[in-house]
Design goal:
The structure is a single chain. The longest helix is centred in the C-terminal third of the chain and has 15 residues, at 237-251. 20% of the residues lie in helices and 27% in strands. It has a domain at 85-251: Nucleoside Triphosphate Pyrophosphohydrolase (Alpha-Beta Complex). Strands 1, 2, 3, 4, 5, 6, 7, 8 and 9 form a 9-stranded mixed sheet that branches. It has 277 residues and is α+β, with helices and mostly antiparallel strands. It has helices at residues 12-16, 27-37, 47-57, 132-144, 237-251; strands at 67-68, 85-94, 100-107, 118-119, 122-124, 151-156, 160-161, 167-175, 190-197, 207-214, 217-228, 231-236. Its cofactor is Mn(2+); Mg(2+). One of its GO terms (molecular function) is guanosine-3',5'-bis(diphosphate) 3'-diphosphatase activity. Residues 83-239 form the Nudix hydrolase domain.
Length: 277
């Protein structure tokens, strides 16, 4: 997919600043939509402002695997740090038991990158996308057949950086009528579509952690084990990091475990082959 430059304006800002926009759903989902529309994500940065921002945050935080972009340091470097943009859809709905659940996918084992891993629907921005919500809902339709008209986009979260230094914007949407969604996974990209309780990502249950070290700094990668019927899944890395953040925002409390964000400096030269291991 072709990438596009970051938008100079994002129509999501209009949605976020109108918290009384009508929402049709259960009492709980209506209250959730109202709460999330009041959430204030960090301001969107225009590409024209990016160069100035990079100069201002030199020596501060930039990136790591599965953590918010603002949580790690960047070193002074000879090339400007200009990551490509992507968006993922955190699609929430109310389960039969009244719990909040999130739609997830298992990537096809035939894919060249992250094959067989659990992911949120999403991908790189394309030239025709109006904003991050457009990117996330378009990709969700392509990957799992989710009609964008079923999704009420209510907010965006702070951008994350993938290990390939791709800026990933989590877009939060709510499906009020989950029965209208009939998953149609793309055989080329998706092996399975399933859902999991959102709250599990701030609980210290069925969770493992892996300590890693890079450039002398230690940090934790979280792995969540989940079973859906006879299938077993492991949700980890960037996807786990995004869902930990989403659950913290939705339930308005921090996780019951230590996240330990890594303080990993980027190399002095950033190019298309640079990765955070």
């Amino acid at each position: 997919m072709a990438s596009r430059p970051s938008p100079s304006s994002n129509s999501l800002s209009k949605l976020i600043t109108h918290p009384n926009k009508p929402f049709r759903g259960s009492e709980r989902l209506t209250a959730l939509a109202r709460q999330l529309r009041m959430y204030k994500p960090p301001p969107t940065i225009d590409e024209s402002e990016e160069e100035q921002r990079i100069e201002e945050i030199a020596g501060k935080v930039v990136s790591q695997v599965g953590f918010v972009e603002s949580a790690t340091p960047i070193a002074q470097q000879s090339e400007r740090f200009r990551p490509k943009r992507a968006a993922v859809l955190i699609c929430l709905f109310e389960g039969d038991g009244g719990d909040l659940r999130v739609v997830l996918t298992k990537r096809s084992s035939r894919l060249s990158t992250h094959s067989g891993e659990v992911a949120l629907p999403g991908g790189k921005a394309e030239e025709g996308d109006a904003d991050d919500a457009d990117t996330a809902t378009r990709e969700a339709k392509e990957e799992i057949g989710l009609d964008p008209s079923l999704v009420n986009v209510v907010t965006v979260l702070e951008p994350f950086l993938s290990k390939h230094l791709l800026r990933v914007v989590p877009v939060v949407g709510i499906i009020s009528n989950i029965k209208a969604f009939n998953p149609a996974p793309s055989a080329d990209e998706v092996e399975a579509v399933f859902d999991a309780p959102l709250e599990m990502f701030i609980k210290d249950e069925n969770r493992r952690e892996e300590e890693r070290e890079w450039m002398g700094e230690k940090y934790l990668i979280h792995h969540f084990d989940y079973e859906a019927g006879s299938a077993k899944y492991v949700i980890w890395g960037l996807t786990a990091g995004i869902l930990i953040r989403a659950a913290s925002v939705v339930y308005q409390r921090p996780p019951a475990f230590v996240e330990q964000n890594p303080k990993v400096k980027t190399p002095g030269l950033v190019n298309k082959d640079t990765t955070m291991r």
